[in-house]
Amino acid sequence: MQKMTFMSRLRLIVFALLVFLLAAASRSGAALVAIDAGHGGSDEGIVYTTAGARPVKEKDIALSLAKAAQAALRQRGIPAFLVREVDRNMGISERASAANEKSPSLFLSIHVSSRGDFNIYVTWMPAQEPDVRKLYLYSRRQRPYIAQSREFAASLEQAVKEAFPGKGVSYIEMPLSLLNEISAPAVMIEVPYPDSVDYGNQLNRQRFAAAIANAVTLYQNIKPAGANAR
Ligand SMILES: [Zn+2]
């Protein structure tokens, strides 16, 4: 067997390094995160009332967290846009097309839970095409991305657990019409209700935003391009 010369070994190392750098660059370069603040306008979502205090609305919490997450991502050089930028009504198909037209590489919808823990949702996706009775629950648009949606959800679960160690985090797969309409890896997160986390406190918003940025970074680092398994 022929021994490798120093030069050929060097060339191999340089080549491997280039491949690695290109792969890393294409992954981070491809990242564009769509952040969807749930509800808006006359659709206020859940309204939380405490005696003597101004009611807190889900639509407002969602928007303030979406803005914080966008800022945290941009700070790390990850481009992100808001699907809903102001307090206005926005239906599911309008939301989906506003997101899809920018071809994001990730989609995250933010809502507030009626309980004190986090819920992370990925749409329901059977291994086989479902029978006709269940077809209305099912999304062909989300099908090519489901493995990555699950990967992103797993990254999100890990990042949220690290940021909020006292909180439970549930992973749930169920048919969700918004996620079904998204042509990208798509996840919905419900944050704990405001009795449990004070979202008026900037530090809490930043903690959540940093967790989102960590989740995106984690997802980009573990995701082999085009991977299919969870
Ligand atoms: Zn909601």
Q: Roughly what is the average pLDDT, rounded to an integer?
A: 87
CATH topology: Aminopeptidase
Alpha-beta content class: alpha/beta
Shape field: globular
Low-pLDDT parts are: 225-230
**Adjacency order of strands in the biggest sheet:** 4-1-5-8-6-7
How far is it from the N-terminal to the C-terminal residue, by CA?
41 Å
- H and E string: HEEEHEHEEHEHEH
The second-level CATH architecture is 3-Layer(aba) Sandwich
Account of the protein in words:
This protein is globular. The strands form 2 sheets. A 6-stranded mixed β-sheet has the order 4-1-5-8-6-7, covered by helices on one side. A two-stranded antiparallel ribbon has the order 2-3. The protein has 6 helices and 8 strands. With 230 residues, the protein is an alpha/beta fold. 41% of the residues lie in helices and 15% in strands. Helix 4 (146-163) packs across helix 6 (202-222). The structure holds zinc ion (ZN). Zinc ion binds next to loops.
Overview in brief:
The chain is an alpha/beta fold and 230 residues long. The chain has helices spanning 6-30, 58-75, 92-100, 146-163, 177-180, 202-222, and strands at residues 33-37, 47-48, 56-57, 80-82, 106-112, 118-122, 169-173, 186-191.
Task: Summarize the helices and strands and which ones pair or pack.
Layout lengths: L5 H25 L2 E5 L9 E2 L7 E2 H18 L4 E3 L9 H9 L5 E7 L5 E5 L23 H18 L5 E5 L3 H4 L5 E6 L10 H21 L8
Parallel strand pairs: 1-4, 1-5, 5-8, 6-7
Antiparallel strand pairs: 2-3, 6-8
Bound molecules: zinc ion.
Provide tags for this entry.
230 residues, alpha/beta, Aminopeptidase, six-stranded mixed sheet, two-stranded antiparallel sheet, disordered C terminus, binds zinc ion
